[in-house]
Amino acid sequence: MPFEKRHAEIAKKTKPKTGKQLWFRTFVFSVFVFTFGSLYLFSRRGNFDLYIANKVFATTALVLIGLSMALSGLCFFWDFVDTKIIYRKHLGLVGLLYAILHVIVTTTLLPHKFAFPEWIYIHKPSFIFGTIALAIFLIMAIMSRRHIINQLGGKTWRALLSYGGYTAFILVMAHFALLKYNGWIGWFRTREPFLPPLSLLEIIFATAVIILRIALWKKTRKS
Ligand code: HEM
């Protein structure tokens, strides 16, 4: 069955919810993700401050945006996820708010950790990838306004959001992989501390989102 038709069927199955309920539940979910990330890093590092919280803001952004993008694939392959498709936009936009928070905290509140503009010169590619990704996600957020959807037409709008979203998501992966790669190698060498870096779990999660997209693309291309 073509993906468009299947998507319409899935949407019909979901119980109607008000916009307020969707935003509230997404926000509560984001607090769960943030709490899990914070407890994980506290267990790993033994302390918690704004520097660590900023890592968790970034993690929460990645998880929410990643889930928002993975929902089409998850619904396609696993029927029990079908009713969650209505959270796609909300997950993406709340995730974007965490990404903005991550950027504000990084650039203004942690000068002893990230001295700007020097940090940019040392981490140019990572900075460029993160900034372009943020710009794409912001454009996508503006594009989710009703009159723009009507102007572009549903099909073009969905295609633009999909290509834009995956491009930005891959840029985010490159953004933090460049910053964290040495830490991952170090952890594989020493296995200290016991828990792996959170960013290693993040890159595994992000890779799974991309693999799911490729699987969905292959499956829907055939049907
Ligand atoms: C859509 C935009 C962005 C997303 C989703 C994002 C996401 C991430 C993620 C997932 C990490 C790894 C966190 C961890 O340590 O576990 C990270 C690290 C980092 N990001 Fe971003 N990022 C974005 C944009 C930016 C931008 C524009 C900047 C710079 C102005 C930036 C600066 C940093 C820094 C400095 C780190 C290292 C944090 C640390 O080691 O404590 N990010 N980011």
Query: How many strand segments?
Result: 0
Radius of gyration, CA atoms, in whole angstroms: 18 Å
| Separation of the first and last Cα atoms | 6 Å
Low-confidence stretches: none
Share of residues in helices:
over 70%
- Overall spatial form: globular
Count of alpha/pi helices = 9
- Helix/strand-derived class? mainly alpha
Beta percentage is under 5%
Ligand catalogue: protoporphyrin IX containing FE
- The average pLDDT score comes to 93
SSE pattern, N- to C-terminal: HHHHHHHHH
Main beta sheet: none
Structure overview:
With 223 residues, the chain is an all-alpha fold. It has 9 helices and no strands. It has helices at residues 3-13, 19-45, 50-77, 88-109, 118-122, 124-143, 146-152, 154-190, 198-222. It starts with a helix and ends with a helix. The model has no long low-confidence stretch (mean pLDDT 93).
